[in-house]
């Protein structure tokens, strides 16, 4: 069991040629890591310009990473003013859509195409236009155009923990929530490997709870109906952009997400956020709470995840990536977190369950380290609500979502 986490380094900035957010990564069969970026890009050939989504190949080892644009022909980038403040007027290699889910299996890349939603009000997701696929590492894409229903939107593939994807049971897994920031539940889906399966919503199954068989062993139940899916857990207004990765050194699944201290707009984007790390032996849980870090980012981090290529052999030393501060920060907050590929190294503690303890951040720099990581060992994740995790409520006047800026 993983019982705690500690920062080993401070935060490393993204390189100057990269910006954008959500940042799902793939450890590809060619040995490289690829990243999909929304509202940004690499070496964007226009001042203030960005693509709705774009792909980059990462070389080097953390924290010294190099980003190079990947894929074939790109549409022209646009500035926020050129698209009239409407993201639907922007474009990228996958079309005029955001893309949050990205994975590889059997030499095929998969990427989601997300319907627009009322993000200015942090409204619920409206589903997927489809899941695109590429058989040549993103140089060209095929678009089956088979829509997935609401409330899917940020459907994010589980990192299987190996080059080219590692799916020993033949299934790819993915998680999603009903809204972008401060959602209340996570659902889990699975689908058999193969482009005809992954891109077809009729081939997906959804976690519907666990049952206990004779002898006390429990197992997951699956349904073909998304409306009949059971959440991995409920936590009212506390789940933002969850990501999950398998840690082969520890044989555990690591679930990461953030939550904002306020659910009101625009404070939900800029009033401070907290990181949560949880773990389980299976992608369907049950999940135990590992650690949390306040004012993460700093101070508005999201899209946090552990890329599997950068996990140590014993599974205890990892690199966490995230984006931050797309909307800036409320007055008084540290706004040094970059709108791009932030990095910091994390060390996991593995031992028998113990009472609640604390681990402090190290003083390693390039930047100041994060604040304390609070460790609540071995607890069921919803029990976190019973603890006095510090929260700050900030009331701010409303305004439209600003453009991303480097």
Features:
mainly beta, disordered C terminus, globular, five-stranded antiparallel sheet, eleven-stranded antiparallel sheet, 23 strands, 406 residues
Write the layout of secondary structure elements.
Elements: E1 2-7, E2 18-21, E3 25-27, E4 33-42, E5 51-61, E6 64-70, E7 102-105, E8 108-114, E9 128-134, E10 156-157, E11 171-177, E12 183-192, H1 195-198, E13 205-212, E14 218-223, E15 233-247, E16 252-260, H2 267-270, E17 273-280, E18 288-293, E19 301-305, E20 317-324, E21 342-350, E22 357-359, E23 373-380
Antiparallel strand pairs: 1-21, 2-4, 3-4, 4-5, 5-6, 7-8, 8-9, 10-11, 11-12, 12-13, 12-15, 13-14, 15-16, 16-17, 17-18, 18-23, 19-20, 20-21, 22-23
Describe the model.
This protein has 406 residues and is an all-beta fold. The protein has one domain: Tachylectin-2, Chain A (5 Propeller), CATH 2.115.10. Helix content is 2%, strand content 40%. The chain contains 2 helices and 23 strands. The strands form 4 sheets. Strands 10, 11, 12, 13, 14, 15, 16, 17, 18, 22 and 23 form an 11-stranded antiparallel β-sheet that branches. Strands 2, 3, 4, 5 and 6 form a 5-stranded antiparallel β-sheet that branches. The chain has a 4-stranded antiparallel β-sheet with strand order 1-21-20-19, with no helix packed on it. β4 and β5 form a beta hairpin. The longest helix has 4 residues. It is globular and about 65 Å long. The C terminus is likely disordered.
